[in-house]
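Proteins fold reproducibly. Take a sample protein:
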Amino acid sequence: MWKYIIKRILLSILILLCVTFVIYTLLRCLPSSFVESMAVTLSQAPGAKSYEEWLAQLNASYGLDIGIIPGYIRWLSQFVRGEFGDSWRYVMPVVDKFKEVIGVSLVMGGISFVLELVIAIPLGIMAATRQYSKTDYVITAGALIGISLPPFFFATLLKLIFASGLGWFDLYGLVGRDYAQLSPMGQFWDMASHLVLPIATLVITSIGSLMRYTRTNMLEVLNADYIRTARAKGLPEKKVIYRHAFRNTLIPLVTIIGGSLPGLFSGALITETLFSIPGIGFTSYEAMTRGDIPFAMFYLTFIAVLTLAGNLIADILYAAVDPRVRIS
C-alpha cells in the first residue's frame, strides 16, 4: 500500500507540473492583460509617458518581459520556496487575499455538500427499492429538474419567492445594513440568514445527479445474484438493503465524493455572483478577467492539488469500503 501511495504521489507531482505549465501559458495568452489596461490608464494622465513606454516599463516590473518558459521556471522556483507574490488586482499578498475570501466559500461548500449527501443518497436508495412506484417517479422527476435547470434559474426563483415575495431574506450581500450594531450572536445569525438562499441553490442544483447515480447503482446491485440469495435465506429486507446492497453501492459513490473535494474550496462562481457573496469563486473570476496572474496561478494550482489528492483518497477508500479491492 505504501509503495502504491508513494508511486501515486510522484505521478501526481508530474501531473501537477504539466497542469501548472498549461495554466501559466493560458494566463499569459489571455486577451485581458492587467499590464495593458494599467498602461492605458497611466498614459492618459496629463504629461504622462506614451502607452508603449508605460507598457515596456510595466512588463519589466511585473516580469512579463521574458518568454513563457523562462517565466514559468521563475514562477515555479518562487512557488516551491513558498513565495506566492502579491495580487495585481487586489494589491495585497496572494495568501492574505485567499485567506480573506476562502472562509465563506468553505462554509457554503461544506454545508451544501453535507446536505447533498444526507438528502440525495437516501432518496436514491428509496427510489431504487420502490422502482416504478409513485415515489420513484416523483424522486426521478425532481432529480431531472435539478439536473436540467441552471443555478441562476433557481437563485432567481428563490429570491423572487423568499426575498421579494415573503421578505424573509435579503436579496444580496453577506451581511445586513445594521450588522455593525448587532451583538456577536446577532451578527452570526445575520450572516447565517444571508447564506440560506445561496446554500439552498447549491443543494438543489447538485442533489439531482447524485440521486440518479445512487438509484442506478443501487438497482444494479439489487439485481445481483447474492442479493437474491440473501433474500432467499430469509434475511430482513432492511438488512439486505443497507448491509449487503448499500455497501457495494458505496464503491462508485466514493469516486464522486472524492472528486467533490475541490468543490469545497473552489467556491460557486455563479451563485456567489448572483447573491453578491465575496467568496473565492467570485474573487478568482475577477482576478482572471483582470489578468491577475499571481492570484490566478495560486488559486488554480491549489484546486489542481486538491483534485489530485481527492482522486488518491478515493482510490485508498475503495479498500476500506470493499475488502475485495486490493492493489494486486
